[in-house]
């Protein structure tokens, strides 16, 4: 390959990578803005913001970009007019579905969401139609390979006020009430545990068993 040809190849590849990174940063910026808008600009008190900042750092998003997005979210500088919206409905085989999204046009997004549900043999319902089928929980994933033994981790989780601990091989998931999540996380870190991720999730109260073909249809939604 000639020097000129190699230069063009590298330049083209870099251009594609820069564009991809730009789109990623744009998405992260919007998530940071909404998280800060809803829960405030302090990541120590706002788990959604803390998680997004962590993701942004993992993708090497500049600190100035993160700070600017937080300021936009709390109204210190002009920002995007984004809102967080939640849609509920039923997917194939009657499975309950909850979708969280961000939008700058609620009517447009609602129409698009309705079309997606219909296309995949589902139905978009009204607010609250399936929400009661889920429990909202905080979950702390510990980093694998902890030097602290299983019994001690269980005792620490109890002392911290956790609801449950699920163990799979050397992986630990600690479940909490959402309002206690940050406090319990801080307690565990103070006791020498390292956390891999922290988030608030929705856990179904009941599960529906589907065969492989029906599962694939549901996943397409």
TrEMBL record:
Residues in TACO1/YebC-like N-terminal domain copies: 5-76
Compartment annotation: Mitochondrion
Record keywords: Cytoplasm, DNA-binding
An MF annotation (GO) of this entry: DNA binding
Domain TACO1/YebC-like second and third: start-end pairs: 82-220
GO CC term, one of those recorded: cytosol
Gene3D superfamilies: 1.10.10.200, 3.30.70.980
Family classification: Belongs to the TACO1 family.
Protein name as annotated: Transcriptional regulatory protein
Organism: marine sediment metagenome
């Amino acid at each position: 390959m000639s020097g000129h040809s190699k230069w063009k190849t590298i330049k083209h590849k870099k251009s594609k990578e820069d564009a991809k990174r730009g789109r990623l940063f744009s998405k992260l910026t919007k998530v940071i803005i909404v998280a800060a808008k809803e829960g405030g600009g302090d990541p120590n008190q706002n788990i959604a913001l803390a998680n997004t900042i962590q993701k942004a750092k993992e993708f090497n998003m500049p600190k100035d970009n993160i700070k600017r997005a937080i300021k936009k979210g709390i109204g210190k500088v002009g920002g995007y007019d984004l809102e967080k919206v939640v849609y509920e409905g039923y997917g194939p085989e009657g499975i309950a579905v909850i979708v969280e999204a961000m939008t700058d046009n609620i009517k447009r997004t609602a129409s698009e969401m309705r079309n997606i549900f219909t296309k995949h043999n589902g139905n978009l319902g009204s607010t609250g139609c399936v929400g009661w089928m889920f429990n909202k929980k905080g979950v702390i994933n510990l980093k694998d390979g902890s030097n602290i033994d299983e019994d001690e981790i269980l005792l620490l989780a109890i002392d911290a006020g956790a609801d449950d601990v699920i163990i799979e091989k050397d992986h630990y998931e600690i479940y909490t009430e959402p309002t206690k999540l940050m406090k319990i996380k801080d307690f565990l870190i103070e006791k020498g545990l390292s956390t891999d991720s922290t988030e608030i999730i929705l856990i179904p109260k009941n599960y529906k068993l589907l065969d492989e073909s029906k599962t694939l249809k549901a996943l397409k939604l």
